[in-house]
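Preliminary data (for renewal application), adenosine monophosphate complex.
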Amino acid sequence: MAHSSHPAGNASENDVFDLEGDTLQEECGVFGILQHKDAAALTALGLHALQHRGQEAAGIVTYDGQRFHSERRMGLVGDHYTDPQMLEKLPGDVAVGHNRYSTTGEVALRNVQPLFAELSVGGIAVAHNGNFTNALKLRREIIAKGAICQSTSDSEVVLHLIAQSKQQGSAARFVEAISHMEGGYALIAMTRTKLMGARDPFGIRPLVLGDLDGAPILASETCALDIIGAKFVRDIENGEVIVCEKQEDGTVKITSSKPFAPKPERVCLFEYVYFARPDSIVAGRSVYNVRKAMGRNLAREAQVEGDLVVPVPDGGTPAAIGYAQESGIPFELGIIRNHYVGRTFIEPSQQIRAFGVKLKHSANRGQLDGKRVILVDDSVVRGTTSTKIVQLVRDAGAREVHLVVASPKITHSDYYGIDTPDPEKLLANQYTDHDEMCKFIGCDSLQFLSVDGLYDAVGGAPRDPKNPQFTDHYFTGEYPTRLVDLEAENGPLKQQSLLREAG
Ligand code: AMP
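Predicted structure:
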């Protein structure tokens, strides 16, 4: 019988199982491989390359022909999965892995993925990047029918729906389960013989298919393929479900279907702005080149006079290169980043987050003293980073500090797996007056890239409000899907008013 060493019981004793209260948002990276003798080690490497998508916890599940093995840990991939003894605990030629960054402060081990369950069709592990916008509603229904939820993760709903499905076989059950889900997701699942993947109907979250010596791989980004020398085969399309299945003759059969109502592809623009790694190719576009183009467009739009273009590293660096090239103003590393501190957002409270900015960035005084500095960052969310960095640059003697931001004003929260605070905590929501916002940040001038400038950088035509080419709700308020759970919580009026603000 298949067995799991799934450590669901390891959660801290103090954890409160508040199933109703969790808002269920996660940023994450996923990786899966079928039919490779080094499945766990390759998955660990893939997750390491995807570390930027989630730094709080990581997990790997494998199947060795007889048993499932599951190891899940809080912390970075490199903290746990480079240890040969750990990899010995994960034998087998099928593996799925997951990097997690919860956005809610709910960091218990019971939520660390991949989630695993023994079903009537055998064991199944699920790893999910994104956010289901109707997961709370579905979970309440499932619990009302008597199910026992072990985590507060929205992904667990998928496991329950697979378990409850009357379809024959795990692939058909996987499809049926996903057909109930709304939101933005890249989902992978593994059984004893299959690696399956699905991308939401709009393709909001990315998922790619790779190949290593005939072993199929599913991963959030191409950088996870590059690290192991795997070939990029193609993007999983929006609304596509892919099933890779071991055959008796030792080959792997790959089948693809589009079982859901067709929707236009609308990749999340925030993957290009901030989330994806610059060396990844997302939906056919080099993230690095897109970021440089954002900087070029920003330079055309901003027309600020200055002596130096200085990136807020690392996020602002490609855009600053583009800005400097376009404007002809010299590029200098006026801020040095300490790489041994996690991303700003990793600290769950505002107080520690503010402190974290100082830990992460220091001024390169010799470059900044007496200069008119054009500071380039990829985005302003709460304004914490910008405020601190502008002060840092001023304290280092800069004569003027002009902040140019390589994305539009973030006025709306994300509900598809990108960490954003509640709307009232977004700086561009708090300050509708541009000058007031500038004053709050403490800069001499402030400029954001226009929505059309961003569309152009990603290779699109100006935004067509009737048919936007990308998912861009954080800038426009136009959400591509229903927000079922949010509406249930806040009522439809609040959501309508969110939409009206965008107008
Ligand atoms: P804030 O300090 O709240 O304005 O956040 C903006 C800074 O955080 C920018 O420098 C971005 O590089 C970075 N950032 C933007 N979006 C996110 C996110 N979803 N998670 C973590 N960091 C982010």
